[in-house]
Design a protein that fits this description.
Layout: H1 7-20, H2 25-53, H3 59-87, H4 92-115, H5 120-132, H6 152-156
Helix pairs in contact: 1-2, 2-3, 3-4, 4-5
Subcellular location: Membrane
Membrane topology: Multi-pass membrane protein
Pfam family, one: HlyIII
């Protein structure tokens, strides 16, 4: 098996820790989304790679799991953005991007379903666009006064003394 035996308990422990440290409903929802996305990525990927390793008589299962492996990457990217888009004050783009990222994951899933392994460059481009595009909400971030001390003076190039 490809997944080390310590990874599943660490995924469950980390996801549970995020859940129990949640202070409000948005944090709880984000913790669930991220935890399920992370667990789904590792479980599906491990199943695919295990079947690929023993693929002599499991060609159809391997093909399906390979497609699911590719599909779950789109949903993991969306799940990775969920805490950031739900819990930060990012401006007007963020409210639209919260849903657009899931629409992109759904479109990517449909693309994999119909064009699996046919146009690899297009699939790579979809992953890159989906990984980069939601980060553009940073351009609409609400201006927040700099914190005292910490990394803020260093990032701004000012002296904290």
């Amino acid at each position: 098996m490809n997944m080390r035996p310590t990874v599943p308990p660490m995924l469950i422990l980390g996801s549970s820790n995020l859940y129990f440290l949640s202070d409000d409903d948005w944090e709880t929802i984000s913790a669930w989304i991220y935890g399920l996305g992370l667990c789904g990525l590792f479980v599906v990927s491990t199943m695919f790679h295990t079947v690929s390793w023993k693929k002599s008589h499991l060609r159809m299962v391997e093909h399906c799991l390979h497609m699911f492996d590719r599909m779950v990457i789109y949903f993991f990217i969306a799940a990775s953005y969920a805490p950031w888009l739900n819990l930060r004050e990012l401006g007007p783009w963020a409210s639209h991007m919260r849903w657009l990222v899931w629409i992109m994951a759904s479109v990517g899933t449909i693309y994999v379903f119909f064009f699996h392994e046919r146009y690899k460059l297009v699939e790579l481009l979809c992953y890159v666009v989906m990984g980069f595009f939601p980060a553009l909400v940073i351009l609409s971030m609400v201006s927040v006064p700099p914190a005292q001390g910490g990394a803020s003076p260093w990032l701004e190039g000012t002296d904290s003394a």
